[in-house]
């Protein structure tokens, strides 16, 4: 197996999930679903000045709820929050650190005010990530991550790619599940009440 090329395999792992399990399930995401708070005290993306958490991060009209350190147990998060986390913390920050995207972080990012805008941000960051991983080739995967990855600086970029794959699959599956819950509980309850 010494002639195996790992870069296509790492990209295909994520691309297969994205294409066959995740992205189509996000199509048609409504603003109602995006902001739905299934339990009290959810963290979400909110209009500036309306959050109740110690930190409301973001540079635009919308902010994302945070607290440092994170409460124990952590609060339940909305689809908006989960997509914000994936778009910024999982993808955009890494795209900036490793693939030439303009620098960003939770504080400076402009969070989406609608589900459609969030999905457009997600698509952009995902495409940048996948193209960036491809640009690494085989030798780039072995290169250390560097200081952008803090205590993981000496780990190979391949380890970061695997981590991002896990994060995307995990969090986007959660978003799909929340859509299912919205459909089968919240919407069902509203129909029965009418």
Structural class based on helices, strands and sheet pairing: mainly alpha
- Percent of residues in beta strands? 5-15%
Return the string of H and E elements. HHEEEHHH
Arithmetic mean pLDDT: 94
Q: Work out the radius of gyration.
A: 18 Å
Taking the sheet with the most strands, its summary is: 3 strands, antiparallel
Strand order of the largest sheet: 1-3-2
SS elements, strand count: 3
Count the DSSP helices: 5
C-alpha end-to-end distance: 62 Å
Give the % helix.
55-70%
Describe the protein's architecture and organization.
By secondary structure, the protein is mainly alpha-helical. It has helices spanning 6-26, 31-35, 79-98, 115-142, 157-193; strands spanning 45-47, 55-57, 62-66. A 3-stranded antiparallel β-sheet has the order 1-3-2. Helix 1 runs antiparallel to helix 4 (115-142), helix 3 (79-98) runs parallel beside helix 4 and helix 3 runs antiparallel to helix 5 (157-193). The radius of gyration is 18 Å and the shape is globular. The model has no long low-confidence stretch (mean pLDDT 94).
What labels describe this entry?
mainly alpha; globular
Quick overview of this protein structure:
The chain is mainly alpha-helical. Helix content is 57%, strand content 6%. Helix 1 packs parallel to helix 5 (157-193), helix 3 (79-98) runs antiparallel to helix 5 and helix 4 (115-142) runs antiparallel to helix 5.
């Amino acid at each position: 197996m010494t002639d195996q090329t790992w870069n296509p395999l790492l990209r295909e792992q994520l691309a297969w999930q994205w294409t066959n399990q995740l992205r189509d399930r996000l199509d048609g995401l409504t603003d109602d679903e995006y902001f739905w708070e299934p339990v009290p005290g959810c963290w979400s993306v909110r209009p500036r000045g309306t959050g109740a958490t110690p930190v409301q991060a973001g540079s635009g009209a919308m902010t994302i709820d945070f607290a440092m350190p994170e409460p124990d147990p952590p609060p339940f998060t909305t689809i908006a929050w989960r997509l914000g986390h994936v778009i910024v913390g999982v993808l955009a920050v890494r795209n900036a650190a490793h693939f030439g995207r303009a620098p960003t972080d939770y504080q400076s990012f402009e969070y989406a005010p609608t589900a459609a805008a969030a999905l457009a941000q997600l698509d952009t960051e995902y495409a940048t990530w996948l193209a960036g991983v491809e640009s690494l080739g085989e030798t780039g995967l072995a290169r250390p991550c560097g200081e952008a990855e803090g205590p993981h600086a000496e780990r190979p970029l391949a380890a970061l790619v695997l981590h991002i794959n896990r994060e995307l699959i995990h969090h986007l599956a959660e978003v799909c599940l929340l859509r299912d819950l919205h459909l089968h509980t919240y919407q069902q309850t509203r129909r029965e009440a009418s």
